[in-house]
Amino acid sequence: MQAIKLLAILATAATEVFAEDSTRRLIVSIPDRKIVLMEDGHVLKVYPIAVGKKSTPSPNGNFHIVSRVVKPTWYKPGMRVAPGPANPLGTRWMGLGYKGYGIHGTNMPHSIGKAASHGCIRMRNHDVEELFELVQVGDPVDLVTEVNADLAKALTDDTSETAAVAAGGLQ
Questions:
Q1: Is 110 a catalytic residue?
Q2: How confident is the model at residue 132 (pLDDT cuts 50, 70, 90)?
């Protein structure tokens, strides 16, 4: 019975993700390790990402972009890394307003597609630079651990379109 209640809650939450009119939003599929940019209910872009590792998982829930920083500085107790090739945040930072979590670039592009971060969402620098130009402070960001049918379709449609473009179609 509890499992049915949980499924109903997840289905309701997932429906809300796709229900708002004329909005741009990011949906992070933690299990698929992808971030989907949607506008007016349509998929604009899908990017591969790295998510939090098992010991430091990415949070799930509904957030908003609260800050955008070009060439961020990375801080940790007793350490500061200025912008540049050694910076773990890469070239862009989009804060989610939750305990220092955000979407950012990386100096470790080989980690993309893996559960490798301390909980943040990592992107390749060229991808995060593109996404940075497409979103604004206030845009909703949903980090989900369960993929509903609409999100699965968005991820599948993107894969099909990407494959078709790679094969010379959909130009």
A1: no
A2: very high
